[in-house]
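[Automated response] Your request has been received and processed.

Submitted sequence:
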Amino acid sequence: MPFETTDVDLPEGSILALYTNGLLRGETGRGDIDSSLLSLQHALAHPHGGLEQTCETVLDTLLPGRAPQDDAVLLLARTHALGPDRVATWDLPLDPAVVGRARSLTTDRLAAWGLDDLAFTAELVASELVTNAVRYAQAPLQLRLIRAAALICEVSDASSTSPHMRQAADTDETGRGLFMIAQLAKRWGTRYTLNGKTIWAECVPL
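Generated structure:
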């Protein structure tokens, strides 16, 4: 179902915390949420060590016995920026002829990054994502490659309709793109934006 999105600018090094109410309700399930929230904020504002140690500090403070009556989940992530040498972005026309260019741009960039061994997988993923966008989406169209902990291929467009993977029959001429991406990529998914969506695929860890 559609849901409201919000954009927030975070400085590099910020800690993003996602948690359930069970973390704040304590082990009895009847704890003071306001007090627990202040303790959580204090622990996150003064982290000690890495994220794993910060998690342990939060749990020791809010759930010292580690036996809550309600489900308690805490997920921490730290923001970091990638330099321009690790991100490649191209604006593409919504034209079937651009698929070949997308393949060339992908292989050329991977060669510049010294990742020629990933060229076949990344080229195929980029080709299928761009093909789907040209056939079913709306302009503007953008291809982006990200060299982070893994090689990530993203294709953004102005349509809010999300594609669905299906098993194509032997006689079908279409319908195999996302199925192939699911087989080649470690993970893939859809991220909605204010102006459309982004389909991303994590090709392989680097």
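Summary generated for your ticket: Residues 27 and 64 are 8 Å apart (CA to CA). The chain is about 35% helix and 25% strand.
If you did not submit this request, please reply to this message.
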